Structures are given as structure tokens and as C-alpha cells.
Amino acid sequence: QVWSEQDYSDLKVKLGGCYPFSHYFRSGVIGSGLCVFSRFPILDTLLYQYSLNGYPYMLQHGDWFCGKSVGLVIIKISGIVFNVYVTHLHAEYCREKDAYLPHRLVQAWELAQFIRHTSKAADVVLLGGDLNMHPEDVGIRLLRGCTGLRDAFAEATRFEGCEDGCTLVPNNCFTIKTELLPFPLGIRIDYILYKAISSFTVTCEELKTTTGTVPGRDIPLSDHEAVMATLHIRRQGQAVGAAGGTAEPALADVVTEARLEVAVGLRAAQRQRYSTGRMAVLALLLLVLQVVGALGTLGGLVAGQPFPKLSFSLLAFLAIGVFLLATALYLFHAIEVKMLQGTEEQMRMVLRALQEHP
Amino acid sequence: QVWSEQDYSDLKVKLGGCYPFSHYFRSGVIGSGLCVFSRFPILDTLLYQYSLNGYPYMLQHGDWFCGKSVGLVIIKISGIVFNVYVTHLHAEYCREKDAYLPHRLVQAWELAQFIRHTSKAADVVLLGGDLNMHPEDVGIRLLRGCTGLRDAFAEATRFEGCEDGCTLVPNNCFTIKTELLPFPLGIRIDYILYKAISSFTVTCEELKTTTGTVPGRDIPLSDHEAVMATLHIRRQGQAVGAAGGTAEPALADVVTEARLEVAVGLRAAQRQRYSTGRMAVLALLLLVLQVVGALGTLGGLVAGQPFPKLSFSLLAFLAIGVFLLATALYLFHAIEVKMLQGTEEQMRMVLRALQEHP
Predict the structure, then answer these.
(1) Where does it reside (chains A, B) (predicted)?
(2) Fewest CB atoms within 10 A around its CB: which of A192, A200, A250, B186?
(3) How many angstroms away from the CA of A122 is the closest CA of chain B?
């Protein structure tokens, strides 16, 4: 995840020797750029933009401007097809009252669907990224349940790095200390997940995170610690496609839990759609009243003192401003409602299918 | 393509007898709804939203509000896996000066990539929809070249319906007659495309379009004529994956042509980004000047007659309005520039790959 295309160009020059192949995924207004550097040729790429990603008017959070999406890069190493997915989900700003949970769940759901549908010809699937979810959160269980991806940290034979594999740690100078007060060791929100599709098995030999600052300097490499995994891929005689079947009752529970959260988000979005729509209508009514009043005054139909010009024009401008702003917000929330409805319905369909064919 | 979810529900009730399985894809603010009705169970679905789709401020064209996207529905009929894609691309309002051509080309490109990446486990691929392109347009050649899809109209053994397979015909009462003046027979912009992926072959036995009005009534079924294809699918011994290889030099030409159009769109978007950005900065400067002036008057620092209050406040409100509007437009065009750049770069990569491995 780099902020600007310039950063990507700089990295490309610096890494060109070891990692001659790279791809930059554009999205959003600023930065956003997911990018991938590879020692092996990149055969193909695809970008999928999540349908929801916070609110443009939450300027202090800024996620909307970064345009969250998932990038797919296809690489072939000694005849084995790797589908490598990179992504960054919406940040969590307040764990107790996480207003963005429904959006992040929609993203996790869309990520899972995208991986399922695009990885059918792959031998090995890898997902790396800042998922902004703790290891036990519903979103990560949903993602893992739907795709069958395994957590490199949990599976690693050897581990080296921050305690508990944390990637957002309090002694990084870019983290906000108060947010990490309940988690003295930090939290693990950056992941490498993997699975083998066809007749391969993947095991994680080693997982490492960076710790602390750049050698010889005072600043850390990034606001998160980096995660590195060494994976061992073995060709084996038979496919293990049926291995995921045992987890289905658990999957139904996770989807139910996620669907509940999406439904909560849906109701909130419907309320906001309603209130912004009402405000737009009220502003329009005020404008109509003013136009009628002005016409009346002009035509000399209304006796007595007309409104003072100043307040009258101020009010008109205010009404126009409120009308435009409320209309834009109404449209935004109308789209949000649709996307949440769509996801909730898809989850309902999956649940029905799970119940019908256990 | 239905306008409202209510229409979908009505259709579902009416078609439930023959087509018990259906799916509705939500996107955009109004309607938008792609929907699919099927005699066979729908196993899985996925929605992909195009990154560009016209401009929200082009209210008279309205495409932006409908949220164009492509829906995938996976169906299995007697053991054969069908990936059925439905879509609707941005309309063409003026063929001579088609401002939406770059957006439509980005959509056609994304559609082709999406089909390629999601159809790897399918036996048969079907694409149906209003592509808003004439049969020889660069977008349809791009789509067909990248995916290997074949045009059911061109391949059909028997054809029945409007002359030349036209689906937008002048004697439909909903079409705008002046737009069709150069095409007295109408135009063919609704397609059924298909291909077989693995060891299957598909042939089109019959293609039909509706003609004219509902029997016994005066109004046509829709603003476009409907297209129906009867396909014959045969299992065959060997795969025919190499058949597309001969068309590669032609593909390079088509991608070059499309890339040129996208580059033209990119320059237009960059110009609009620049002019909206400049307007936002100017409005901000005006506001700053006003604030300085107001503070000066309040502090009694400026001698002489201050501005009349009315014009002063009107100007301030105007400046705020222009600033907000110009900022919103700037953000929109900044995203547009990014998406056009991304597509142009992808096309460049594909061209390089085509030249390196002919």
C-alpha cells in the first residue's frame, strides 16, 4: 500500500534489481495504490473495487478517498499457477462503536466472492494485506470460512518478530497510543493467508515480522510492521477439495453473524437516506415558497413591507446550498442501502443453500 | 434490464411457473437492475461494477444513476457448467461526437477482463446484453478479440426477426426517430455472444428477435427488440483452446485502436480535472479575500465606505457554493483520470505481451 504513484516509481527503481516485475493498481482519488513487486513475471492482473468504502464527508477518516479495492496478480513459478491477491480494507477507528463494521463486512464478503470466482484455475491462492480486523473478528472468520484460506501466522512452523505476530504495535511512533491502550502488545491486522486448490499442498515454514526501526535510523519502515512468509509448496497425488466440507455448520454461524451486522448497517443507512431526503425536500419547499413570495412582491400582489433584501437572498442561497448537499448525500446513501441490501440477500441465499445441502 | 425492484418482483411472480430460478443484481441509485430468470438452479452469482460510467451531472443522460455493471450467474445443465454474463454498457447519445466512447471502451475492456478471469472453470460462456455498440465498433471487436466470444447473430443457421438483426428499430414508438435517421433499418446493439471453453462446441441453431408490438395491443414489449438464441452444445473429444491463436495480430490492432480512444478520453478528463481544480482554488481565494476584507472592516482598519452588505454576503455564499461544487467535480475527474490511466496502461502491457510472444 503506497500513498502516491511517485512512491511506487521510487520503489520500482530501488527494487528493480531483485524484483524486476511489478504492478500498480490505481483506485480512489489519492494514493490508494496497491502494488506488487515480484521476482517472477506477472502474467495477468485484475482489479475489483469494493462497492462500499466509508463516507466521502468523513474527511478526518479519509478511507473513501483512498478507494479500497482488491488486486489480483497471476504468477507462474516452475509450472505452478499462483493467484496473488492484495487488498486493504476499511480502517476501524473505534472498536466499541465501529460505524464502519457493515462496510468492512461487505468488503470482506466481496473479497471472498472475488477470490472464489477468480481462483478456479489457480494451483495456489495467496492473500496479503491490511485487513483491519483482529484475528477473531467476524469478518476474518467470514473470509476464511467462505474461501478456505489458512492463516500463515497460525500455521507457521517457526515464527520470529513482534509478540503474538502483532503488526500495529504501540512502540511504532506513527501509531496512536490511546487506541492501543486495551492491547498493550499491539494488534495483528495484517495477514498472509493461503491455500492450495488443485493437487498441491502448502505449508508455512517461517513467518517473520519486522520489529522497530530501520537499522541505524530512528524512524520505522512504516506505520505497520511488515509480514514475510516462507511457504513450502508440494505436489501431491490427490486433490484435497473435500477438506473444507467439515466446516460448514460453523460457516453458517459466521454468515448469520455477519448478516446481522450488515442488517444493522442497512437500517442505519436507510435512516440516513430518509433524513437526507427529507432535508432536500424541505429545502426545496423553502425555495418554492421564496419564489412564490418574490413573485408576489414583484407583482405588487402582497401589500405591506416586503422581506429585507439581505436576509431574503441569504436564505435563498442557504436553501439552494442545503438542497444540493442534501440531494448528493441522499444519492450516496441510496446507493449504500442498495449495496447493503444486495449483500444481505446474497448472505441469505448462501445460508439457505447451506441449510438445504448440509 | 429492469428499472425498479418492483418490476423484478412482478416479473418473478409472472415467470415463476416457467422460470422458477432468478437473480436480481442491484447497483446504482435508480433501477439499474440487471436480472436473470432461469429454468435451472442458479448455483452462484457475482457482480462487478465498472469503474467509469458517465457523469453524475449529465442528468439528461442519466446513465451514471443507473450504475452500469456486469452480473455473472453460474448454472449447471446436465453436468455442463454455464457462466452466463449479463450487462448493459453506457449509451451512445451522439455517434458523430461520442463523448462517452472512452468510458464505454473502459467498460468493454473491464468486461473482457472480468469474463477471462472468472470463466476459467466454465464449460460454456454466454454473454447477453445491451452493449450500446454497433457490430463493427472498436469496443465490440475489443471484447470479442480479448475473450474469443462469437456473435450468435453472425453464426446462426436460421434467423427470424428484424432485418439485419436490428434491435433498436425506427418503428418502435419509444425510440428517438432523429437518432436513427442515418440507419433506416435500425441498429443492432443487443447481443448474445458465446464460446465453449473446455471440450465442448457450441453452435447457434436459431436466432430470433421480437418484431413490433405485443399481440393485440399497440405498445411494444420494450424500447429494444428482444433477442433469443437456440444454442446446440456438443461434447467433443479434444479441447480447441488453440483456435484463438491465429487472431492475435488483429487483436493487437484492435487494442491499439482502443488505447488511442482511451488516451483521447484521458486528455479530456485531465483538462476537466485542471479546470475544475482551478475553479475551486479561485473560489477559495475569493473567500479568503472576503474574510480578510470583513476582518479589516470590523477592525476599523479600512477607511471609507465598506461594501454593501447584500452584495458582500451574496458573493460569499456564491464563493462557498462554487468552491464545494468545483471540489466535488475535481474529485470526480481525478478518479476518472486514474481509471483511464489504469486502463491505458493495462492495454499497453497487453500490447507489449502480444508483441513479445506473437
Answers:
(1) Membrane
(2) A250
(3) 9
Contact A54, A27 (CB under 8 A): no
How far is B33 from chain A, CA to nearest CA, in Å? 10
* A224 in catalytic set: yes
User: In Å, how far from its chain's centre is CA A172?
Assistant: 23
Does the pLDDT of residue B301 top 70, yes or no? no
- CATH 3.60.10.10 fits domain A5-240: yes
The domain segmentation of chain B, as residue ranges, is 5-240, 250-298+307-356
Question: What is the DSSP code (8-state) at residue A306?
Answer: P
Q: What are phi and psi of A164, to 5 degrees?
A: 60, 15
Output the pLDDT for position A243.
47
Query: With bands split at pLDDT 50, 70 and 90, how would you rate the model's confidence at B199?
Result: confident
Mean pLDDT of B227-247: 69
pTM: 0.89
Across the A:B interface, residue pairs with CB atoms under 8 Å apart total 90
- Cα–Cα distance, A179 to A172 (Å, whole number): 13
Q: With an 8 Å Cβ cutoff, are B117 and A118 in contact?
A: yes
| Nearest CB neighbour to A314, from listed B313, B334, B346 | B313
Rounded CA gap, B64 and B17, in Å?
35
**Contact, B24 vs B5, CB < 8 A?**
yes
**pLDDT digit string (tens) for B304-350?**
555 677 777 778 888 888 898 899 899 999 999 999 999 999 999 89
Chain A residue numbers touching B341 (CB-CB < 8 A) = 26
**Category of B67 on φ-ψ map: left (φ > 0), alpha (ψ -120 to 50) or beta:** left
Q: Is the pLDDT at B221 greater than 60, yes or no?
A: yes
